[in-house]
Design brief:
The complex is a heterodimer of chains A (163) and B (252).
Chain A (H helix, E strand, L loop, with lengths): L1 H23 L10 H10 L4 H7 L10 E4 L2 H10 L19 H23 L2 E4 L4 H16 L5 H8 L1
Parallel strand pairs in A: 1-2
Helix pairs in contact in A: 2-5, 6-7
Chain B lengths: L10 H4 L21 E6 L6 H14 L4 E5 L7 H10 L4 H25 L3 E5 L2 H10 L4 H7 L8 E6 L2 H11 L17 H22 L3 E4 L4 H23 L5
Parallel strand pairs in B: 1-3, 1-4, 2-3, 4-5
Helix pairs in contact in B: 2-9, 5-8
The chains are: A mainly alpha (163), B alpha/beta (252).
């Protein structure tokens, strides 16, 4: 609970200082994770789903929300390849499911991914298959954003920009 | 926002003392815990801490285990709250959420373990202070009630009620008016006296509006310390006798 509420406090602070002012000025705000991360992570920790959604009802609804989906094996492989040391909470070590960080990460993030799948349906998140190459993902991502902003661009133009 | 209507009139009927108000904390079931929560509410300067000190002594003499918990006393959050207050970066939403975090920490780390172990938890203020402060600042009432849906309904809530005039004299006599207690963040005016008066008046209105909804036992805080204490002891004594009798197996 405290974990969930601390994050909500941090989010409220960023919302009011960093998100709302540029929106009012007509700018585009790119948010690297949003309230959905909290919905998934907190529910995976056993917090009541409805309560978390109500908690974040002060948040603005994003015009476009994109979820980069990878299977758990891919994400662990990527992290291991970079020899990232798993963070305590990211690995869900606070839950006491396993004392092995990687094992705990698998269990915890597995639950988080299940929660995301619920969210995709509930909030209509656009899904990008994040298994592919960065270029492929970026292409899909740009298409989604262009469609949303009604920017007319052909595949060729997109490819040129990425070349 | 800002509506003065109380959230749901049927809420009072569904409150079960010793259980969560809302859906609670799913990973912490508290059914059947033997402890009790007794909350003493009221604005600053009504004499809560004096009454709690006396109650504690009285309860301990009778053999009850007692712990005290108070507002912003969480080990985790107190330094953060003090820092945020001092740096003037808080807005009403972050203010509300920091207090809720503090409460959640105390609930999980102090209150629930004490209830499980059969202690009497004397709470110097409970969630109602947060609700009153947020209500005055125009935070949505339904949202606030949902936010504190993880809180446990106390077995008894005493509200030490005072009027504005008596309160002002008491506060001035003791430690004077401070920035937050005067609601200076609400920019009601530059004059701290006027601001204190206006702010405390609306706070009192908020408490009154919650009295029915949350089943407050209202006590007149203008009376002498020992008169109030006697009344508290009488009501708490009756409640404890009743619940002790209920938990004892019938003698053969």
């Amino acid at each position: 609970m405290t974990f969930s509420l601390l994050h909500a406090t941090d989010f409220a602070d960023r919302l009011l200082y960093n998100i709302v002012p540029p929106l009012k000025a007509g700018m585009i705000v790119l948010a690297d994770r949003f309230a959905y991360t909290a919905f998934a992570r907190d529910a995976a920790r056993g917090v009541d789903r409805r309560w978390v959604r109500e908690l974040y009802s002060f948040a603005v609804k994003p015009d476009l929300a994109v979820y980069f989906r990878v299977p758990i094996e891919v994400s662990t492989d990527r992290l291991m390849a970079r020899r990232v040391k798993l963070k305590f909470y990211e690995a869900g070590l606070d839950m006491g499911w396993s004392s092995n960080a990687l094992e705990s990460f698998r269990i915890f993030q597995g639950k988080v991914l299940d929660e995301y799948d619920r969210l995709v349906e509930e909030f209509g998140l656009s899904v990008v298959n994040a298994v592919g190459s960065i270029t492929e993902q970026q292409r899909t991502f740009r298409k989604l954003v262009s469609q949303h902003l009604q920017i007319e661009e052909t595949d060729e133009q997109l490819d040129e920009q990425l070349a | 926002m800002n509506s003065l209507t109380s959230s749901s009139p049927e809420a009072a009927n569904t409150i079960r003392p010793g259980n969560y108000y809302g859906n609670g904390i799913p990973y912490l079931p508290i059914d059947g815990y033997p402890g009790k929560i007794i909350a003493i509410e009221g604005t600053d300067g009504v004499g809560r801490s004096t009454q709690i000190r006396l109650l504690r002594e009285w309860l301990e003499v009778q053999g009850y285990g007692v712990i005290e918990t108070g507002w912003t006393r969480s080990e985790l959050m107190q330094p953060t709250i003090e820092l945020a207050k001092a740096s003037n970066t808080l807005n009403k939403l972050t203010f509300v959420l920091l207090y809720a975090t503090n409460f959640a920490d105390r609930l999980e780390k102090e209150i629930i373990p004490a209830l499980k172990a059969g202690f009497i938890v004397l709470s110097d203020r409970y969630i109602f202070t947060a609700m009153a402060r947020a209500g005055v600042r125009g935070v949505d009432r339904t949202w606030m009630r949902n936010l504190y849906g993880f809180a446990i309904a106390p077995h008894l809530v005493f509200y030490l009620k005072i009027d504005e005039k008596t309160l002002i004299r008491r506060v001035l006599q003791s430690r004077g008016m401070d920035f937050w207690e005067s609601g200076m963040d609400m920019k009601l005016g530059d004059d701290i006296y006027e601001s204190f008066r206006a702010y405390q008046r609306s706070l009192l209105r908020e408490y009154t509006s919650m009295a029915d909804e949350f089943g407050f036992r209202v006590l007149d805080a203008r009376r002498k310390v020992d008169v109030i204490q006697d009344e508290l002891r009488r009501q708490i004594g009756a409640f404890l006798a009743e619940s002790d009798a209920a938990s004892q197996p019938a003698s053969p």
